[in-house]
Amino acid sequence: MARINTNPSSLIAQRNLTQNNKSLNTTLERLSTGLRINRGKDDPAGLIASESLRSEKAALTAAIGNAERTDQLVNIAEGGLQELSNLLTDVRGLVTATANNAGLSAEEKKANQLQIDSILQTIDRLAESTNFQGNKLLNGSFDFQTTAVATGVSDYKVNGAKLSKGGPALTVQTIITKSAQTGTLFLSTNAALNLAGNTALFTIEVGGATGSRELSFASGTTRADIVAAINTYKDVTGVSALVYTSGGYSTIKLNTTSFGSDQFVSVKVVNASGTSGTVGLYDPLAANNSARPGTTQTAFTASNATNGYRRSGQDLVATINGVQATTRGRTARVSTDFLDVEVTFNSTQAAALGSINAFQITGGGADFQLATRVDIAGKVALGIQNVAARKLGNSDTGFLSELASGKRFNVVDGDLTSAQKVVDESVRLISGLRGRLGAFQRNTVGATIRNLNVSLENSSAAESVIRDADFASETAALTRSQILSQAAQNSLQLANNAPQSALSLLRQ
Fold it and tell me: Does residue 476 share a domain with residue 406?
């Protein structure tokens, strides 16, 4: 049959030619852009997934930049702290040199004091001038703001705390379940020593965490005299003494000068010299530790006494905001991702069991966004304390600013022993801060950068699988589309020529 009004063969060829041309155009577009998905109709689900991955990649790139900038900021802070460490080392040497009292003239001592004054001024200047893009790093600008500090708290430090934007203040609640104690024992003697002979000596060795001294006492020596002799060396031994009177009896109470399990008091009886009366060594009463002697006596001639009778202190045991704290003496610390604080209680509070709201954190700190999601979990908070001279030290030892001229720890006529303790505590604080910043750089920032880079690589690979064109497949499709398009064109030409056969019927 030959029909000319409707040519089905031509229509079929046209349809296939159109489809093949569309396929060819799609393949050319993918090859020219390098993308398999150029618009939503190419792959709706794939487009959604790839756009989500693109968004994540942008956030990852920004987070990597944040982490690298954080590392640069901490580097600048570390540089300032390193110079402070060098200055404190110089102060330490000047204090030690000035303690050579007989070997220095008054003018040399004054010259050393002038150097210390200059160093203290430089420390304050560095604390104020160390900055990153105008943000001061060491003057307390990045320290946490606190309020409602309990009277039982002698010192505290906030190293890190995550606070919700606009949320309530964070209360640092401590529950003390075991008290801090000094090492304590009782040395019971007569009101005046009663020895076997006038030439005999009662000889004991008193020791503590920092040293020991052997002391000898003649017959007739009073408890007050023994206490005075022991206290003469308390800075050497770490043990102090007092005459303890209660309930009609008196004895000598020996205490370590500090709290904690690393502190101890020991008494070794070198020569009892026939002491008589109600004498001996006693532990504190177990039910009321360190308050009064127990009932069990260790005689001066017993092997426990002659070999050395020793009693240690006790660290407090506590939780902070529900987390078991690491403790030493009267100090408790927790270090978690959300809260890193250190609290030191005074001797009264450290011996009291129960709950105490130590203080509240109301804001402050340095917040760094080191994750892709902007929420409290993706934020890292770091506290950098003020390192000015008036802030270096603690309430027990004093502060570095007290080494200045005219202050109680100046090197001309001040207390050099206490001055050295203050400098040592200042060195400890600066070293601790440098170590904490170093750990933050190495473990938090460094690990974050490495993890974010791996995530960026994997996200890019995942997006590539979904969105990028496979050139091997697309070039094969291009060849196929070209052949089919050419075949469709030839077929259309043949289909269009077919109706002309009807003319042959008219010529007959």
Answer: no
- Neighbouring C-beta atoms of residue 223, cutoff 10 Å: 22
Of 148, 169, 175, the C-alpha closest to 332 is: 175
Considering the domain architecture, whether residues 111 and 15 belong to the same structural domain is answered as no
Domain count, the chain: 3
| Assigned domain for 329 exists | no
Beta-carbon contacts of residue 195 (< 8 Å; ≥ 6 apart):
201, 202, 218, 219, 273, 274, 275
Kindly report, residue by residue over 81-118, the tens digit of the pLDDT: 999 999 999 999 999 999 988 888 889 999 999 999 99
Query: At 441, which CATH number?
Result: 1.20.1330.10
Output the pLDDT for position 194: 82
Give the pLDDT confidence of 448-484 residue by residue, as tens digits. Answer: 999 999 999 998 888 888 877 777 777 887 788 788 7
In a domain? residue 217: yes
Summarize pLDDT for 355-405 with one digit per residue, the tens.
999 999 998 888 888 888 888 778 888 889 999 999 999 888 899 999 999
List the beta strands (DSSP E) in 189-322: 201-208, 211-218, 239-246, 249-259, 264-271, 280-284, 293-298, 309-312, 317-320
Read off φ and ψ for residue 12, nearest 5 degrees: -65, -45
- Closest of 105, 104, 85 to residue 96, by C-alpha: 104
Residue 209 and residue 311: Cα distance in Å, rounded?
A: 11
Q: Is the dihedral of CA 26, 32, 38, 43 positive or negative?
A: positive
User: Taking 90 as the threshold, does the pLDDT of residue 71 lie above it?
Assistant: yes
pLDDT at 4: 65
Residues 420 and 458 in one domain: yes
**Facing residues of 244 across strands?**
251
Residue-wise pLDDT tens digits, 417-431: 999 999 999 999 999
Q: Which residue has the tokens 């040592």?
A: 424
Last residue within a domain, chosen from 285, 312, 339: 312
- The residue ranking higher by pLDDT, 481 or 241, is 241
Per the domain annotation, does 302 fall within a domain?
yes
Query: Would residue 153 count as lying in a domain?
Result: no
- The SS3 of residue 132 is strand
Instruction: Please give the span between the terminal C-alpha atoms of the chain, in angstroms, as a whole number.
Output: 17
CA gyration radius, the chain? 41
CA–CA gap between residue 427 and residue 414 (Å, rounded): 20
Contact status, residue 440 vs residue 75, Cβ threshold 8 Å: no
Of 335, 394, 391, 334, nearest to 140 by C-alpha is 391
301 with 200, same domain: the answer is: yes
Q: Which tokens belong to 269?
A: 């009886």
Q: Which structural domain, as residue segments, surrounds residue 494?
A: 8-34+471-506
Q: Which residue has the tokens 């943000």?
A: 135
Question: Residues 439, 478: one domain?
Answer: no
* Same structural domain, 124 and 94: yes
